[in-house]
Amino acid sequence: MRAASSNQGMGYQRTERVGDLMRVEIADLLLRKVKDPRIGFVTVTGVKVSPDLRHATVFVSLLEEGRIAEETLNALGRAAGFIRTEMGRRLRLKYTPELVFKEDTTPRQAAHIEAVLDELSGDRTDAAKGLDDGDEDRT
Description:
By secondary structure, this protein is an alpha+beta fold. The chain folds into two domains: 2-104, K homology (KH) domain (GMP Synthetase, Chain A, domain 3, 2-Layer Sandwich); 105-139. The protein contains three helices and three strands, in the order H-E-E-H-E-H. It has helices spanning 2-32, 67-91, 106-138; strands spanning 42-49, 55-62, 98-103. Strands 1-2-3 form a three-stranded mixed β-sheet. Helix 1 packs across helix 2 (67-91). The chain is elongated. The chain starts with a helix and ends with a helix.
């Protein structure tokens, strides 16, 4: 029973290592080899690989939003075959995973949360100033 669980742990580590290698290679390919003008400023933030190493979700952070972001994701999807072929040559895996590109919204969500916290902090500062001002009027 323990041997099976340790094998699962090894598989998990392997998927992480393969994902990290893929992230580096995909970022390099996007920078140096993929020449599609629709792919603007893209940062590969992570790669999640399935346990059987046959599928990989590539998370990318996009500078653009809205329609332009959609066009960038579509262009990445069209370039997936080329990227997969090049990555297969570089990594020499038995199977090169099929790639699916998805937007990583974490940076945008973090910026939104930070803005809300800043706003709340500003409201508290204003409220504290109001209390301080009120104290001065009473004396």
